[in-house]
Amino acid sequence: MGKIVAANWKMNLRRDAARALASSLAGQGRDLWLFPGFTLLETVRQATSGSSLKLGAQDVSPEVDGAFTGDISAEMLVDAGATMVLVGHSERRHSHGETSALLLRKLHRALAAGLAPLLCVGETLAQRQAGRAEKVVRDQLGLVKKLTPAAREQFCAVAYEPVWAIGTGQNATAAQAGAMHNLARAEMNTLGMGTVPLLYGGSVKPDNAGELLAVAGVDGLLVGGASLELESLQTIDDLAG
Ligand code: PGA
User: Fold this and answer.
1) For position 1, what pLDDT does the model report?
2) Residue 162 Cβ < 6 Å to ligand 1
3) Which of 61, 125, 140, 171 matches a 20 to 30 Å C-alpha distance to 162?
4) Is the C-beta atom of 166 inside 6 A of ligand 1?
5) pLDDT, tens digit, for every residue of 112-144?
6) Distance CA 218, CA 178 (A)
7) In ligand 1, which atom is closest to the CA atom of 222?
8) Helix, strand, coil share of the chain (percent; to 5)
């Protein structure tokens, strides 16, 4: 079985471009996971309906439906056709100040609505330089201890994404990714998440995807910038088999 390729489109694309990209991928019978912006969910849902592509959202409100202007609830995401949601992406943790307490509430809401969370973890450059990378990742994974064992098995994946590698063009080396995947996998095994796939993310491109996919313990890739163009996404997906 091939490895997973998840496309995080972040705050990019318009409906026409999203439709074109999703339709091409669907037409080729690919089984990638797509995470478009909220306004593109319906467009991508239509373009991928009946295909083996899976649809996810990039964020979820920690609240149930109600007076929360600007928020999107887990139930709304399900209604829009999403089956997965990113939680804990570093751009939410760091640019939006999302704390682990908030992330836990988001996980609860997503799980209650039947969305499979994709939990992102990873250390900053300062944390790595201070020798704290492993502790940071272990602590971020440890958040799931507050969930039931059954809930932990409902995650679609965990992604190790070193913050210093995201959008910087500087991916982790195979050795760095391998070491952290070993640690994260061991931790996930003890947390009852032995069957949950562990992805690598951070400046994955067509020219480094093969090397990263070959790292033991890398079950797939979470791709940002390189997932916005059909050709590079196809190349990465071909490498993932
Ligand atoms: P990038 O983003 O591939 O553009 O570095 C990855 C991510 O943030 O998921």
Assistant:
1) 67
2) no
3) 61
4) yes
5) 999 999 999 999 999 999 999 999 999 999 999
6) 8
7) 9
8) 50, 15, 40
**Cα(110)–Cα(61) distance, rounded to whole angstroms?**
9
Q: Is 161 in the active site?
A: yes
* Nearest C-alpha neighbor of 186 from the set 178, 172, 173: 178
User: What does the pLDDT read at residue 73?
Assistant: 98
Which residues partner with 159 through β-bridges?
Answer: 120, 199
Structural domains present in the chain: 4-240 (3.20.20.70)
- pTM score above 0.70: yes
Query: Is the C-beta atom of 187 inside 6 A of ligand 1?
Result: no
Ligand 1 atom with the smallest distance to the CA of 204 is 3
Spatial distance between the Cα atoms of 117 and 108, rounded to a whole number of angstroms = 10
Taking the CA of residue 226 as reference, the ligand 1 atom at the shortest distance is 3
Amino acid in the structure at residue 175: A
Structure tokens at 110: 């997503």
User: Ligand 1 atom 7: the closest Cα is on which residue?
Assistant: 224
Q: Are 73 and 65 in contact (CB under 8 A)?
A: yes
Structure tokens at 169: 């063009």
Q: Which residue has the tokens 């939006």?
A: 96
Average pLDDT on 11-19 reads 98
